[in-house]
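Journal club side-thread
Mid-discussion, someone asked how the predicted structure for our own chain would compare to the paper's figures. Pasting it here so we can look after the session.
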Amino acid sequence: MSNETAEDVAALCADYQMDTYVRTATIVRGRGSRVFGPKGNQYLDFTSGISVVALGHAHPAVVDAIKAQAETLIHSSNLFYNEPVAKLAAKLSKCGLGGKCFLCNSGAEANEAAIKLARLWGSRNGGKYEIVAMRNSFHGRTLATLAATGQSKVQKGFEPLPAGFAFAEFNNLESVRAAVTDKTAAVILECVQGEGGVVPATPEFVQGVRALCDEKGIMMICDEIQCGMGRTGTLWAFEGYGVKPDAFTAAKALGGGLPLGALVASPAFSDVFTPGSHGSTFGGNPVACAASLAVFKVFEEEKIPANAAKQGELFRRGLEGLVEKYDQLLEVRGKGLLLGLALREPRAGDLLDELRAGGLLACKAGDSVVRFLPPLNVSDADLEEGLEMIADALDILFGEEE
C-alpha cells in the first residue's frame, strides 16, 4: 500500500464510493485470523470477510494457487474450455448432488440463476413460476433476489419488485404448505438464516419441506451461500439435516477470497438451461476456480468442516457462559462457526463498537444480534482470546448496569 493514512483512505471512500455501507476501520493486510491497519494496529477478525476467507487471510495454499493461475491464464470467457473451471465443476458435482453446475461471481448471481432455473423448469411443467421463500430470509441485492428476501427493510424504495414470490414462516411447515399453490415451482430456504438473526432451521422443518416438495412435485432449493462450505460443521449445511435439495447455491467461501458463486443442481435439473438461456461473462474465472480448488484440497486434507463443528462447540460454550453472566444477553444461536449472540435490547451496534475498540471485529445480524464468523481453521488460542475480548466489551457496556 502507498503512504495514505487511514484518514486519507476514509476520505477517498467518502468522496468517491457510493454510500452503501457503514465502514468502521481501514484494513491494509491480513494473515490468518488477524487483519492489520495502516499503522500496524491489529484486529482479531471474526468476520472472515463476512464468511468469505474461510481458511483465514492469505492462506498459503490459496495464495500459491492464485499466483500460479494468474501467471498462466487470467480470463478466457465461457466460449472456451479451461482446466480449472472443468475441475471445479467436477468437484462441485461429486461433493454436491451428482449433477451439473453453473458458475458465476457472487451469491446474488447464484440465487438469481436458481430462480431462473426454477422458472424455466416450471414453465415447461405446467406453467409454474412462483417461488416460496421464508420470512426473515436474505438471498441477495438484485431485484429478483430482493423480491425473494423476506425482509421489507431491504426492499423499501425498490418497488415494484418482480412478481412471483410468496412467503412462509421459517420453521413452520404448515405455513409453507399453505403458501404452495398449483403455480409454485420451488421452495427456497437457508438452513441457518444468517442475515435474519442467525436462526437455525429445525430438522423437522427441513425434512418436512423436502417431503412437501416431493409430494407436490416442486423443487427444493437450499441457499448455502453463508451457511455452506463447512461453516456449520458439514460441507453443506443441508447435510446436517439428512436431506438433499434439488439444487443449492454457494458463494462467499467458495472462492477463498475471490469472487465466485455457483448454482449446483441434481441430475434431474441439470439440463434445464440450454445455450443462450443463461450466462455470465466472468463466471467461472480461471483464477477464482483455481483458488476454489485449493480451498477444497485444504478442506479435505485438514478436515475443515469437522474442525468447524469442534471449534464451534468450544466457542458456543464460552458465549453461553457470558449469557449466564449478563441479564442483557438473551441466547446464543446458530451452528458450527456461524454463531449469533442475541441481546434483549437493540444494542448490537454498541457492542460491535466496544468489540472493535478492544481489537475484535464482528458483524451485526439485525439490531439485536452480533454475528461471529471466525475462520473455520481458527485455533483454540484465538478463540480463547476472542472470548476474553467479548467478555471485556460486555463488562464495559453492561458492567455498570449489573
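Post-session note: The longest helix spans residues 304-325.
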